[in-house]
Design a protein that fits this description.
The chain is an alpha+beta fold. 21% of the residues lie in helices and 20% in strands.
């Protein structure tokens, strides 16, 4: 899995990440492939962020869940309890 390639966050909201198109393939920039794992099927439908030109960047269901969980993490460290 590649690292979430964003250049920063949108000034108006922290929910939209701005992705750098230089780090994405043409298929990812066009919304034909997941911006994180490059999966093309099923076609990515979950918005992950935007490109600097305003285009949407999409992710598959699994990666969008991971991105949402990553964004929801607080600054507090996570602990695992057995």
């Amino acid at each position: 899995m590649s690292i979430l390639p964003y250049a920063g966050t949108d000034d108006e909201t922290t929910d939209n990440h701005t992705f750098s198109p230089e780090l994405l393939s043409d298929a990812q920039c066009m919304g034909d492939a997941c911006a994180i794992c490059h999966a093309r099927w099923p076609r990515p439908r979950h918005p992950l962020g935007v490109l600097p030109d305003g285009g949407c960047v999409f992710g598959c269901a699994e990666c969008s869940g991971l991105a949402a969980a990553y964004g929801a993490r607080g600054e507090a460290p996570e602990f695992a309890v057995r």
